[in-house]
Structures are given as C-alpha cells and as structure tokens.
Amino acid sequence: MALAGSVLLLFNLLIFIRGIVCDLGLPQNHLIENEADSPEENLQDDTGDIDLRNKLHDQMIKAYSKIPVKKYKCYSCEPPDCREGPPCYNALQCWKSRVRDSNGQERVSRGCTTQQEQVPLYCSTQHHHHHGHTKRHTGGQYAIDCCVGDFCNNGSFPLLPPIIYPDEVPVYSDHSVYIWKLTLAILGPIVVLGTLGSVVILLMRRRHRKRLMAARSLHSDPESYCPSDDMLRATAAGDTTLREYLEQSLTSGSGSGLPLLIQRTLAKQISLAECIGKGRYGEVWRGIWHGENVAVKIFFSRDEASWSRETEIYSTVLLRHENILGYIGSDMTSRNSCTQLWLITHYHALGSLYDHLNRATLTHHQMMKLCLSMINGLVHLHSEIFGTQGKPAIAHRDIKSKNVLVKNNGTCVIADFGLAVTHTQATGALDMAPNPRVGTKRYMAPEVLDETINMQCFEALRRADMYAVGLVLWEIGRRTLCNGVVEDYKPPFYDAVPNDPSFEDMRKVVCVDQQRPAIPNRWASDPTLAGISKIIRECWHQKPNVRLPSLRVKKTLVKLASNDRQVHLDLDTL
Ligand code: ADP
Ligand code: MG
User: Fold this and answer.
1) Which of 242, 270, 272, 276 to mutate to test the pocket of ligand 1 (most atoms within 8 A of CB)?
2) For the whole model, what pTM was predicted?
C-alpha cells in the first residue's frame, strides 16, 4: 500500500515537474510567435520574404474594405505634447498614441484614421505597446489605441513599458516570472521529496520504536517499566561490577538477566572485539562491557523469532544456574538503519565443548567434571520448580557439543535456547513452533527423524533431549584417556553419514538400520568408561520410554564418580 502510494506520488510529482518545465517552455514559444506575427516586426524586419508580406497586406486591406463604413469625429492634436487642436472628421477609427524615439524622448498625439488601409496597419491589434518592449528595437517604440465612436480617443495615452538598461532587473517583467517558475521547478520537487523522505523516516522510526517496546515488554511485566529504587541505584553506581548487577537483578525480579533499566543501554556500551562463532541464526562476538568480556549473539534481523524465543527463555525467573549459560540481557538497536538483535551472555574463552574436545584429551577427573556439570544443567532445565517464583520445565531441543560451552574451571554450561520449549504442569500448556523437524539433524532422535514423535507431549521432547545427551557423552568418552589411549575427536555418525547429512541420510541410519556410534572396546576395561557406556546406550535407545531421564543419569554419574579414585569432586554440592 505504502509503496503504491509512493509510486503514485512520484508519478504525480513527475507530471507536476513536467508541467512546470513545459510551462516554462510555452511562453517563450508564444513570444516568438507574437514577435513573428507583429506588424511592426514585419515592418522593421528587412530579412523576411517581402513578396509574401505584400500579398498578405493586400489581403488584409481587402478584408477590411468589406466592413461597412461609418465616419466619426475625433480629437486631434500634434506631437510632441498634443496641445489642443481642431478635431478631425471622416474618421473610420479614432486613435491616440505615444511614441518613444531612440533617445528615449516620448511624444503623444491624437487623430483620425481616414484611409481604409491605415486601419489594419495601426489598429489591427488593441495594444501595440507590447511590441515595443524588446531592447532590440533600437529604432524606437510606440503604442497606439484605436477606437470607434465620436471623440472616443479622449483620456490618457497608452503607456510604453519602462526602458530596460542592461544592468537593471525589471521588477515585474516576464523575465522575473520565468525565474520564479524556474526556482519553483527546482525547489518544489526538493521540498516535496524532502517532506516525503522525512515522513517515511518518521514512520519507520515509530515502527522501530514500537517493536523495541514490544520486544522489551517480552521479558518483563508492565510494572518493571517503573524503575525501582534498587535499579536506579544500580544505574547510578558507575563502578558496579557485572556480578553485583546480576545479583541485584535476582532481588529486583526482572528475570535472570540484568535489571531492565540497564539492559536498555547495554548495546550502546558494548564494543565488539572479535567474532568467535557462527551459527544458524547469526554470529557470536566477544564484546567488552565495562572492561569485562561478554559474549554477544547477533541475530539476523529475519530471525527475530529466535531472538525473542531465546530472550524469553533466558528471562525465566530462576533459570539462573551455574550450568546454564549466564544471561546478561537483550537489546534491539538500530545500526545503519538496520535492526540489530543482540543477546548478551557471559563469555567463555574455552568456547564450545566441541572446540574443547577437538583441542584437548581428558583425564577421568576432567571428563567427570564435564559430564556431571552438563547433566546438572540439563536436570535444572528439564525440571519444573513450583511456586510463584518458580520455573517451567524446559526442553532444549538442540542438545549437541556445539551448544555446550566450557568454563575456565572445566565445568560446562548449556547454551543456545533458540528452539527451547517450556511446559507448566498446572496448565499443561506447551509453547512451540509447529514444525517437528527442528534441531540439528545429526543429533535428532529416531522419533523426530521419522516424525512419529508426539509433539504435544512434553515428556517426548525431554526424551529426545536425552537421546542427544547420549551422543554428547559418547563424544566426551572418546577423548578420555585410559592407560594413555584415546580416540580422535569425531562427531557422532562420522562414519555413517556425509558432512551436513540430509534427513533421509539420518533417517536411514538411525531409524531403518538402527545404527548407533560404535563404543570402543577399550572402554570395557575401564569401570568408569564402562559405566558411562551403559548410560550412553540407555540414553540413545530406540524406544523413547526406555531412555533414562536426566536426573537418573546425574545420579548414576555421581555414583561412578564416587567410585573412581582419579576423580576428586565435591559431589555433595551437586
Ligand atoms: P547458534 O544459535 O547460532 O547456534 P550459539 O549460541 O550456539 O548460536 O553459538 C554459536 C557458537 O558460538 C557456539 O558453538 C560457540 O562456539 C560460540 N559461543 C556462543 N556463545 C558463547 C559464549 N558465551 N562464549 C564463548 N563462545 C560462545
Ligand atoms: Mg548453536
């Protein structure tokens, strides 16, 4: 609609400009025509076709001689000043005239036109004076008024246009009219286009602001727009650290991120340092905020839905957990008139578990730390916490080693909640995109691949997460040293499907052939790895209802860890 309107307006504008430009051209043609027609011009122009002119002249005289003749009395006086003189008689028309000679001297006179051929010559046009205004008429200028009736040539004499000297600008000449029109032709479109542009920009800004407001109200109730005293104090305190801010946000009830008031200025205060990852929805950057490293996930503007989803999930009260990626805030800003969607979280220099496993081999202790912390995060995610300040159960739907990050202390956090789904028992409500085929194909459970999963059943989504956990535990196990032996890092199904496998590739391997990654023989001789292989098999079982829930995996891992002398973890804190 708006586009059609603009096109129509532009079209009208073009017509308008054409009109003015055409308009500008017209009077000049007109002038030229007049000049060519003017009897005086004809008289003075000795370059024209004399024969043709004489012919025309004769024809005009003939035409006038057919007019019925009536004779009048007229005033008559002589130039230069036309003092009283005797009237003249037998006039076909009376006239009064003003003549200016080449020195600028003006003379006036009145009299009778008694000869038939004089009539067309002097009186064929009413106002001759405008023939005289051109500067080229160095031979002089004249104006004559003719009339019909006794003594009709009384009163004032016709006027001649003022004398134009080359350096004088006439105040009300035709010339000035053209200048005005030209100015209008140039300025008019500029003003119209400028106004149009301003209106469009204003509308776009309003729309942008509306979206910002909508986005910000996503993770807040209306009350949180009114800054509490706590928030104001936090904003005023320039030296407050990130941790202090976040602790404050827990008490101010603005979800798991920073107080909303601070989130609103976040993007402006962050400088982006380096790109650390590229994913499905955009790029992840290391940024610096108040001297501390933060991770900034910048979504493509077309993926606003994923940004909203992730913002919403992170804003869940009580989501904050040591094994869930720490959320700082979200912001929607415009840079270079593009909407930018930012999600700001804690930064973890070791990167994803995938990066970490590619780089390093693991001792039993390190392996257990990774496994236990990851499953600890998942238990928190999968559990519903009841009460007014509770949290819904959340299914991740995209568990994989690239979506688990490694902290400097060797524990894991779960990240990337772009596909997460929440569930509240009391209402039974599931909020979810209708497409069942989401997530990373390589990690999709068989029931997702063959689309037999009941998407309305939250438990089914949790079980699909557990299938993926089985694959990630297998990736970790391969990198765990046992008697100095270790496998290379490989992604699940590396030997069964090509890079970037299709649904069909995956479905054939996982559903039809019911293949699973091979568990190396050496694991059997290591009690901990053997225990983990049992967990893995139970996680990636073909039948979803046989799979272990996250809490069961956690408990089994704790038991394995307590029996492993190489592992020194404070298991009571888990
Ligand atoms: P996407 O939704 O695009 O997959 P992710 O949140 O999974 O985005 O991030 C993509 C990659 O960026 C991760 O696999 C990881 O390598 C890197 N990354 C993401 N967040 C962080 C972070 N907080 N600290 C360090 N690296 C990160
Ligand atoms: Mg990801």
Assistant:
1) 276
2) 0.62
